[in-house]
Amino acid sequence: MILPKISAAILSMATYGSAYAVADRQLCISFEQWVVMAGATNGAACVFGVELDDANLHRMTARHNFTRYAEEHGLLLDEFDPLFERGVIEGETLTRRRASIIVPRHDGLIKGFHHDKLIDYARIRNALGH
Rounded to whole angstroms, how far apart are CA atoms 89 and 102? Predict the structure, then answer.
């Protein structure tokens, strides 16, 4: 089930400064789920009013890093945009529904989002290979 993993990614970004820190929590996460989770963190940050340019940079960084990982590991990533967009919608919905849990972590979530919009590939490779 992806919803607990999306929740974990959003809360990880808010608490640990990166959505990719969730890898340290020993969750079994597929490559496609990582893309959805990246979209969810983008959607959550959008609920809190991040600039459109920042949201787009976050998406482009995620696309670049996931595409590179797929190429290096023989994976297919033909569906990045639909998976990411699904995550955006689910992240927005979850954030609105669980506002009482997420709002107190607003500053941490935004800080984590700004970290992840420029995250280097090595951090992604380590998280996905965890």
Answer: 16
Under 8 Å between Cβ of 123 and 68: no
User: What is the Cα 42 distance to its own chain's centre?
Assistant: 6
Q: At 99, list the tokens.
A: 């506002």
State the residue for tokens 């990045």.
80
pLDDT tens for residues 66-111? 999 999 999 888 889 999 999 999 889 988 887 777 666 778 888 8
Q: What is the DSSP letter of 32?
A: H
> What distance separates the 2 farthest-apart alpha carbons in the chain?
41
Give the containing element (helix H, strand E) for 57: helix 52-72
Radius of gyration in angstroms for the set of CA atoms belonging to the chain, rounded to a whole number: 13
Measured distance CA(113)–CA(103) in Å, rounded:
14
CA separation, residue 28 to residues 38, 82, 100 (Å): 16, 22, 27
Quick one: which of 51, 73, 53, 50 has its CA closest to 121? 73
